[in-house]
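Holo model, adenosine monophosphate. Inputs:
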Amino acid sequence: MFEMQVERSPQAIAVIFENTQLTYEQLNQHANQLAHMLRALGVGPNILVGICLERSLEMIVGLLGILKAGGAYVPLDPAYPLERLAFIFSDTQTPVLLTQENLINKLPPHEAQVVCLDSNWQNNTHNNKQNPINQTTADDLIYVIYTSGSTGHPKGVMIPHAGICNQLYWKQETFGLTQADKVLLNISFSFDPSVWQIFWPLCFGGQLIIARPGGYQDTAYLVKVITEHQITIFALVPSMLRVLLQQKGIENCQSLRHIICGGEALPVELIERFFAKLNLDNVLHNCYGPTEASIDTTFWTCQRGTNYAFAPIGRPITNVQIYILNENLQSVPVGESGELYIGGIGLARGYMNRPELTTEKFIFDPFSSEVKARLYKTGDLVRYLNDGNIQFLGRIDHQVKVRGFRIELEEIETILNQHPAIHQTVVIARENFPGDQRLVAYLVPHQQIPTNDELRRFLKQKLPDYMIPSSFVILEFLPLTPNGKIDRDSLPAPNQIRQAIPATKVAAQDDLELRLTEIWEKVLGIQPIGMNDNYFDLGGYSLLAVHLFTEIEKTLGQNLPLSILYQAPTIKQLADIIRQSTILASWSSLVAIQPSGTKPPLFLIHAVFGDVLSYKDLARHLGFEQPVYGLQAQGLDGKQAPYTRIEDMASHYLKEVQTLQPNGPYLLGGHSFGGVVAFEMAQQLHKQGQKVGLLTLFHSSAPAHIKQLSFSKEILTHLQTFFQTGLAYLHDKNLDKWLLNKFIGISYKFHLFFGLPFPRIYRNRYIREVNIQALKKYVPSIYPGQMTFMQIEEQVEKMETPSSKHITQLGWANLVAGELDVHYIPGTHDSILKEPNVQILSAKLKTCLEKSLTKYDEMG
Ligand code: AMP
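Output:
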């Protein structure tokens, strides 16, 4: 078919890759030269030739060369782990391998003769540019593509020419490709949609545009290529369509004539989004088909305003028969669900070296008079709709689709079970965002608990990236149904199981890193994440990066290009890049610690050092439904003067709080010094006539006003005592520290005066000094409302006179006119916000938050 097209348009451009291109004639001649060489190496019908190449012009020459020699190709994705490539080599025993020089040393040991397509292989051959005489028939193999297998190894699907020939003619008759059409090759050649992307244009005169390696997942790049090259035909999976529709400039992709969408269920809501953005009728098609039946077997052209939840998969293509059958292989009535069986010209010859599996999945066709006729048992549950279209309902086994990738969960489970520390495991796919399926592995270890990094490393040696679970959840036992099977529905969501950051990981060092960590944890659905963990090693992938960067933009106001993730794949590196950029210049005291959730937000005020990092664990334990914001001290940026009076801090923080929540009831809290500021904020809110839903103090002492001495008087007093008591005084009174603090204070003012940012390491120290002075000056008045006080258990036990409520509540009892609601929590002043004490604090706080909500709900 390709050679016939070469006759029709020898000088037309056949293929373009970046700045290089080949005409039909040139491509044909290169392919012929290779074919003659391969023939000399013994390649002929049904001989398998491995091809391991990055996307390039050579890839197309290689594929055509193999087919012209009469052989069948076996795509070997260079990104696959060595063990998987080694398995494919040994399963296929390919005598010849086409590759490129820089990949030779990255391949596992194999027996194949190597031809490097980027070296001058043409010189070694007879240089015959003529079409070789065709020796292939429609029943001979065209390729063997490997897909996930439940035994722990992938399985090779052997596809003959007939099915692909039928596929290409059907596409041509249905969609009528012309010489003006440009088809984008964006799918990896180890998945079968790439087959039509390559051969449909080449057999019917269109232009094949090859996306750069890695370009498939970069939506900005895709939009650029589509608009620059005026692409008319391309393919993608629904999860990719969802992200692409959010990409800036997508509305300019008006050149598109056919978008072949498939690989997983296509939600109608996404179709509506497509029409809203692109307004193109008869362009989006939902195509369905397993690898075993030569690409697409049914299709439906998407329409506007239907009542379906998911797009139907439509009707069979030419020369394909579809049956919907029950367990007894009888047809089910319209509307009833049954398993989909496929018959006709597209069926695979079977699975490579797997005769039992082939017999199990390719059954005799009970409806055909031909003895050799087979039906492929898809494992897909479907039903007929009243209008004759077929509706996809799900799977009858544990095969899943994650971002369009076909995965047998048992393959991952089998491999995980080979890890010496693992006793039992189950892997499932969960939806994190709409349309975003993630793999989660649940593990019961023997004794020693493997780390997530260790498990990822172990799996990466054997499985492609898309099969590595995003999260690993350690369980004591797997939940069972009453009849003893694993109860997959009762497996907890990964974020319900909270883990403290282990000592091996670096924790967030400042507010920016903290905020990035929160975003990463939310988007990746895993926790804990260390500052040096690599995004891609954590199971992050490019499509998800769009969510990640949308969240970063929402929370930090930073509009970063996705490509930054490749330069800076860790939180630490990303934070450094953000710090360098000028956009963060507009500094705010309000920090989104955990901004998601629909409940009224809780505002937590910084403790004496000025930052709000210490509230991270508390916010996490309060859950994703409870938004938590922190208020950090002005001056932490090293550029502004800190507030020196509690009243000024409080009114500044209130202004920032009210930009987010203009009206009460407000929920306020603070640890230690932060409690005092929260108290003052509550006072000011009362004066404004606003309601305070909750004022909670975590072990804060009421301020005891201390009369301030002027700087000179302070020095004089110190000097007097120093001369009276001698050198020991220096140490006793920490005079050295006092002097250092004074020096830091002067130095801060100096930096401010000259507009220089104050060094980060001294900022907290200076702010602490300023806050302590502010506390000494503060004279609290009696608060008319209620207060919730989080008291430390030990404090009560140690008290000799427990009746002394005044002391127990650290001086607040006389300062609160309303009820003083006291809760007892384990820990010390410094450890109540840390694991494990923080769990009790958060549990108590949750009850208080709920109580305050009901109170205000009742008040309307
Ligand atoms: P693959 O062999 O990778 O093409 O995967 C084939 C499987 O993907 C089918 O058996 C279905 O489970 C699923 N699938 C493919 N296309 C669709 C579609 N349009 N709608 C729903 N599921 C699909």
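Residues 837-858 form the longest helix (22 residues). The two ends are 75 Å apart (CA to CA).
Archived with the compound record.
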